Amino acid sequence: MRSRALDPGLQRERTTLAWTRTTLGIIGNGVLVLVRHERAFPLGVSAALACMCLVVAGVALVAGLRRSHIEQQADERLRAAIVPVLALGSSMLILASAVLAAIVVYG
Amino acid sequence: MTEEQSPRNDDAGADFDSLTGAPLDYRFTLANERTFLAWMRTCLALMAAAVAVIQFAPDLGSDEFRELSGLLFALLAVAAAAGGLVRWLLVQRAMSAGHHLKRGLLPVVVAVGLVLVGLALAAVLSGELLG
Strand, helix or coil at B59? Predict the structure, then answer.
């Protein structure tokens, strides 16, 4: 184990905070699609997009929590986060495609 | 508990510098991860812009203009998600192989797209203000 004082720039902490920030951003997008306005998507579409945001936020939360072990990990045992990155990246791609599809169909 | 004590070499190829055989500096791995997450947040911001221009700006220019700018924002969001993921993979691989990092196309695509939609928005807004 290595003390935090030897981690220049607090890399581990900044990385877990970046996961947290990203999770919050997904939740914010989920709330945004739920706000109703005169020119809103049909209710079912908004609800479906919000549900997708909730699922992606869950993926980011779990991935970030699984990744938070790096805060205590020794340098030489630290590995690339292949599973968390692939999980979040692919689910974000699906979410962005769904928003694109909603705009094409109902925009 | 012997399993915990033995060195983990199940995915050893991913995090070692192939030239020196030394472990890759963990700071580079984490920096790459944060860059990936920054692209994900860029994607989120672009999605929010797409939804906002479609849903919350009914009087902005014509319907076609709103739909077109919303479409462009959403396309850029898809590009940011896909590009951010691919770039993380390529950078991680290049760092492990000891190669130089190549400049990606993604920032150029997003920047050009945003400049285009920004200019169009400025034109529409100034037209409404002056006309």
Answer: coil
